[in-house]
Write a structure and sequence with these properties.
Layout: H1 3-65, H2 74-102, E1 113-116, H3 117-127, H4 129-134, E2 138-142, E3 150-153, H5 155-171, E4 178-187, E5 193-200, H6 222-226, H7 235-245, E6 249-255, E7 259-267, H8 272-294, H9 300-313, H10 317-332, H11 338-360
Parallel strand pairs: 2-4
Antiparallel strand pairs: 1-3, 4-5, 5-7, 6-7
Helix pairs in contact: 1-2, 3-5, 5-7, 8-9, 8-11, 9-10, 10-11
Length: 365
């Protein structure tokens, strides 16, 4: 056997070995997938079987609590309240485990849509109004009206994320305090457009040593446990998993006694129509500036009114209002001094040019 034949034989033997290793690896993967599916099916079955009797128990406790409460029944009702509270905690735990299992499904992120996070968070705040009003907490939203804060995702899942974060902010805040929900946009190191949402409270805060474990399953901050604030320790684990499914990330910043800021970052997304509009913003604004800069004083009323309406469609809301207000002022002051008119016109042009420069620099992100 010559060297060429030996080389071909060795290559064939190596290839055959690789084939066997790949076949063994594939079989191992299939076995692991089968085991994982069996585990998922088991967890789902157990949780369904637990949820049914728990729901029934809570229902009967509610019936017992409806009985007339007189002096001799006070202790009886105190025990019922303990039973009801613990049964509800257990039911919440069961449903959270079940939901975490469902989040591992490949179909969970099918049929995503473009979602306005500002609108979604406003609905989440509304769902917590009873607790917010009871504690007299002021919740404020902070964002640039000229920017959109939309992402691609599943609305029910993202509703759960921000409902949980806002609910936690309320739960861990003292009465008469404040919660800020802030929205911003930026480009990361990979030039990916990101929407950032911060939920900041002025509550008890989280110990520094607990922050790295905050999103782990069944973990609860030490001061929350000491204060006996109820919770399963699964809420933030669910939130983290949902955010990751949306290709985002979540983290927390906190100082004991000063409060906590939960930060969610998700990839920015817009609809096809919005993308078309956004692509024309620079050109539309440049033409608007040119029209105003080169028109006669007698034309200013009509041009500023028309241009103001046009650029408003392209989300230049502040600039649009300024132009329309100028047009109204001109109508209301037909005999205004020419120098005053030109000064106001120049001030508007400065504002419009500053906005145009910001767009050119990409500062909108």
């Amino acid at each position: 056997m010559n060297n060429q034949q030996r080389g071909e034989l060795n290559s064939e033997q190596t290839l055959d070995k690789v084939r066997k290793e790949l076949a063994a690896a594939q079989e191992e993967i299939l076995n692991l997938q089968s085991i994982n599916q069996s585990k998922t099916d088991y967890v789902t079955t157990v949780n369904h079987e637990l949820r049914t009797p728990l729901t029934s128990i809570i229902g009967y406790i509610d019936l017992l609590q409806d009985f007339t409460l007189d002096n001799k029944d006070k202790e009886f009702h105190k025990y019922l309240e303990v039973m009801d509270r613990n049964a509800s905690i257990l039911l919440d735990l069961v449903e959270s485990i079940l939901f975490l299992t469902e989040l591992d499904s490949r179909e969970i992120m099918a049929d995503t849509v473009v979602i306005d996070l500002v609108e979604l968070c406003e609905k989440c705040v509304t769902s917590q109004l009873l607790a917010i009003n009871t504690a007299n907490i002021n919740v404020s939203g902070n964002y640039d009206l000229e920017q959109t804060f939309s992402v691609l995702g599943k609305k029910p899942l993202l509703m759960q994320v921000f409902t949980n974060l806002i609910s936690n902010a309320v739960k861990f805040s003292s009465e008469n305090s404040k919660i800020d929900v802030s929205f911003s946009r930026y480009k990361n190191a990979d030039q990916q457009k990101i929407v950032r949402v911060e939920v900041r409270d002025r509550g008890i805060g989280i110990p520094a040593q607990d922050l790295p474990l905050l999103f782990s399953r069944f973990f609860r901050a030490s001061n929350a446990r000491r204060s006996e604030i109820p919770g399963s320790g699964l809420g933030l684990a669910i939130v983290k998993r949902i955010v990751e499914l949306h290709q985002g990330k979540i983290f927390a910043e906190s100082t004991i006694g000063q409060g906590t800021t939960m930060i969610v970052e998700l990839p920015f997304a817009i609809s096809a129509l919005e993308e078309l509009v956004m692509g024309k913003r620079e050109d539309v604004l440049a033409r608007a500036i040119n029209s105003i800069a080169n028109c006669q004083v007698s034309e200013l009323v009509d041009i500023t009114h028309d241009v103001g309406g046009a650029i408003g469609f392209y989300t230049f809301l502040l600039e649009s209002d300024a132009l329309i207000n100028f047009s109204r002022w001109l109508k209301a002051n037909p005999n205004a001094d020419q120098d005053e008119i030109m000064a106001k016109k120049e001030a508007l042009l400065v504002m419009l040019n500053q906005t145009l420069e910001r767009i050119k620099r990409g500062a909108d992100f």
